[in-house]
Amino acid sequence: MKKKPEDRRIGRTRKLMHEALMSLIVEKGYEAITVQDILDRADVGRSTFYAHYRDKDELLLSSFEHLRSMFEQQQQAIIASRRTGNDPEINFILELFRHTGQHQKLYKAFAGKQSGEMVLKYLHRYLYDLLIERTTLLMKSRKTPPVPIEITTHYLVSSLLSLMTWWLDNNMPYSAEKMDEIFRMLTTPAIEAAFGRKVEISDYDKIAGAPGGSVKAFYSHFIDNDCCSS
Amino acid sequence: MKKKPEDRRIGRTRKLMHEALMSLIVEKGYEAITVQDILDRADVGRSTFYAHYRDKDELLLSSFEHLRSMFEQQQQAIIASRRTGNDPEINFILELFRHTGQHQKLYKAFAGKQSGEMVLKYLHRYLYDLLIERTTLLMKSRKTPPVPIEITTHYLVSSLLSLMTWWLDNNMPYSAEKMDEIFRMLTTPAIEAAFGRKVEISDYDKIAGAPGGSVKAFYSHFIDNDCCSS
DNA sequence: TCACTAACGAACACTTTGTTCATCAAAACA
DNA sequence: TGTTTTGATGAACAAAGTGTTCGTTAGTGA
């Protein structure tokens, strides 16, 4: 499983620097941090830092990539565990909120108010790329949606990030499930409107049978929702 | 009207520095700009810069304040010009998009992808404060909204800013009116959902008679909309 | 045990910041 | 118009940060 015949010192040093950066971000905000701060906090030599990373940004990106792969692995695990049943759908948004809850410290550094512009853009782009292919696919059946899909997708990502940020910056007063519910309440009708009023059940079935695997999975909560009854 | 017995040199120097900063932001992004860059572009002395502003951020903030007061003045003018008629309502969002169209260069520097984190946060807060009092007022009549107003407001501001940013970064392919329409399509149903399904006409009338002046004006397009018929 | 190599830290040149001050030139004022 | 006030100038400065180099030290893996 592991292909890591790596010097222990490397891992240890990197961990020290990552932890130092994370804690510093929460304390004083990413932009205000100097390499010297990281060196002091991690108690690591100057040349050591530059032996591993080109600059502050690369260190941060590296942390982000780590978190991302953790999330993706967890997603895969969940999907795999449900493959046996006949309902392999997962609620992507909910899982993201859950993962955020499980790794508050890291997410605070990346998506909290102290986070740097760079990661936020990176995160935005990451989520945008994840969604755009699915929205595009979802739109195949429709002629011209009232709102261009790029805008809708951009909008959706911003909405999601704004909820995440709010959640993190306000000590997470609600559960991940509640946040997911809020996201659904706010965006489900918007998606319907943007996609041209009412996503029909027939569309839903069509999509479900279309290639692309998890389209149905991801959009399931947008379409077969029950948030609008009651 | 004007109370400005000010040395002409001051205004000239400041204008040079502001223009330099604006153009530099669009070119290389705010974070990457050094004071030296501004000095070179504006062709002013180093000591001159620091005689006017503490640092880069203060110069930017000052530019922002200028734009803000321009916008607010224009708003006042529009309201005043309609006071004679019996329909003094204005569509705040639409006016903001129009103002953006009229001052593309400035808005690109503030809300475009090259903009700095600082102004964006400032802008976010500015819009948030504008909205929160109105949403709070709007909610007075309801017991407990399904979604807390702070979240809804935070969400609305993020949505608006994300549309503005998208618009600016994609060479503004649509008219301000179209952007306003898109914003309405995406958020009107969300607001209704967040405020507890269907804002009744009775609520609307109540709000219209309530203190707070422009509440009705601002929310007019959310409530007496026609985007959901057809 | 021993060869390897990561970590160290001092020293380096370089960039950027923010301040000071004597000097110059352009407004403002009468 | 001439005089005074005041902003702009640029050189010089200390301070802080960046990113690199290299000989030395010490932990690691075999």
Can you tell me about this structure?
2 copies of one chain form a homodimer. By secondary structure, chain A is mostly helical. The first copy, chain A, is built from 11 helices and no strands. The first copy, chain A, has helices at 8-28, 35-42, 46-52, 56-82, 92-102, 104-111, 117-139, 149-169, 176-194, 201-209, 215-223. The longest helix of chain A has 27 residues, at 56-82. Chain A is elongated and about 60 Å long. Chain A starts with 7 loop residues before the first helix and ends in a 7-residue tail after the last helix. In chain A, 32% of the residues are buried. The structure holds a DNA duplex (30 and 30 nucleotides).
The topology string of helices and strands of chain A comes to HHHHHHHHHHH
Percent of residues in helices of chain A comes to over 70%
Please work out how many helical segments of chain A DSSP would assign.
11
Q: What is the assembly state of the chains in this entry? A: homodimer
Coarse morphology of chain A: elongated
Largest interface: A-B, 34 and 35 residues
Strand content of chain A: under 5%
**Helix/strand structural class of chain A:** mainly alpha
State the end-to-end distance of chain A. Answer: 49 Å
Radius of gyration of chain A: 20 Å
Count the beta strands of chain A: 0
Overall average pLDDT of chain A: 82
Largest sheet of chain A: none
Low-pLDDT runs of chain A = 199-230
